[in-house]
Design a protein that fits this description.
Layout lengths: L1 E5 L5 E5 L11 E9 L4 H6 L12 E2 L3 E9 L11 E4 L9 H4 L7 H4 L21 E4 L2 H4 E3 L6 H4 L5 H11 L7 E5 L3 H12 L4 E5 L3 H10 L2 E3 L6 H8 L5 E6 L4 H10 E9 L12 H6 L3 E4 L4 H13 L11 E4 L3 H9 L8 E4 L1
Helix pairs in contact: 6-7, 6-12
């Protein structure tokens, strides 16, 4: 089959690779109909992941994908050949103590207690879905059937970034009447903004250096702030009658933005960090967090928890995930998609690929 294969920093190639095969009675093979480039994939592109992750190369990348079930192991009961499904980006076994607690990203079977070995497209052990087909372990836990009247582009982002954005709003305990600052207007930040509004936030302040992305945030109903042109702290105080934001969400993955979040959040407020910080350690503004009684929560998404909650909202027209799509390309142009997304070229926000 053809796939986007990782060979090293800024070296992704569209080439032939081995067809996926069932390796367990709980596996399924999915023929991919849509896949997408995620901001987390750019960590591989830029070579900025911790030592050991992606080091070997030679595997298909991508963890946001959906398609049609082609084959199932004999112990798979929830899906069958021909079903249209989406895949959770993080793979859980469904039965270990962590999965039973809903922390599928920490599955003891798939991660052996640590690492990123249960995320598609970051190792040879779990090749990704920017390919014509992919093997999905523990299919009963990690595959979800898609309603027949829901388009692929509507369902695709339930695999990762829409649940991640909603998780940020949930971690920040966003509720009716809140003012929330969201750092980052990329795909995850955009979904965090939308989910904050969905949960009843009275005001969402979108922060980014890209004026094109800020304009998109305005169209969603956010107040937009470019901190290179406006003093962010002063603007937040102005919009909150001097109190500060009730909550902040960091959706970029930069250590300095955690400090900024702590500075603009009111005493007793909440901070969620859903951007991926790849450094093994980060310096937190601990004294500021302590003195302002701020809570901070972070973590890797568990789409299995959020897919059943969010899919009905898409069906009812309450959420339109397609608003973030800026480019639709054939899979063969995947390397070009990485170049424009990584370089903020052609006003790229989200690149969807079709095998």
């Amino acid at each position: 089959m053809k796939a986007i294969v990782y060979h090293g920093k800024e070296d992704f190639r569209y080439e032939s690779t081995a067809d996926p095969r069932l390796q367990s009675d709980t596996d399924a093979i999915v023929r991919v109909t849509r896949t997408a480039i995620c901001g987390s994939d750019l960590h591989l592109w830029h070579g900025g992941l911790p030592e050991g992750i992606g080091a070997s190369g030679g595997f298909a990348v991508g963890h946001e994908f959906m398609g049609i079930v082609e084959e199932v192991g004999r112990n798979v009961g929830s899906v069958k050949k021909g079903d249209r499904v989406l895949t959770s980006c993080t793979v859980g076994c469904g039965t270990c103590p962590m999965c039973k607690r809903g922390v599928y990203s920490g599955c003891r079977v798939m991660t052996a207690g640590g690492g990123a070995s249960n995320v598609f497209g970051f190792s040879q052990g779990l090749p990704g879905g920017q390919a014509e087909a992919a093997r999905v372990p523990f299919a009963d836990t990690n595959l979800f059937r898609v309603p027949s009247d829901m388009a692929d582009d509507q369902a695709l982002f339930l695999t990762d970034i829409l649940p991640t954005g909603y998780m940020g709003a949930e971690f920040a305990e966003v509720g009716p009447g809140d003012t929330v600052v969201v750092f980052g207007c990329g795909p995850v930040g955009t979904f965090a903004q939308m989910c904050c509004l969905l949960r009843g936030a009275a005001r969402v302040i979108a922060v980014d250096l890209d004026d094109g992305r800020l304009e998109r945030a305005r169209q969603l109903g956010c107040d937009a702030v470019n901190p290179s042109k406006v003093n962010l702290g002063e603007r937040v105080l102005e919009l909150t009658h001097g109190l500060g934001a009730d909550a902040s969400i960091e959706a970029v993955g930069r250590e300095d933005l955690i400090l900024q979040a702590a500075m603009v959040t009111r005493p007793g407020g909440r901070i969620a960090v859903i951007g991926v910080l790849t450094a093994p350690t980060a310096t937190l503004p601990w004294f500021l967090l302590f003195m302002k009684n701020l809570s901070l929560r972070t973590g890797l998404v568990n789409p299995q928890i959020f897919i059943p909650k969010l899919m009905p909202l898409i069906e009812q027209g309450r959420l339109d995930p397609t608003v973030i799509i800026s480019h639709r390309l054939p899979l063969s142009e995947g390397p070009h998609g990485y170049e424009i997304f990584a370089g903020h070229k052609e006003n790229a926000l989200k690149v969807v690929l079709k095998p």
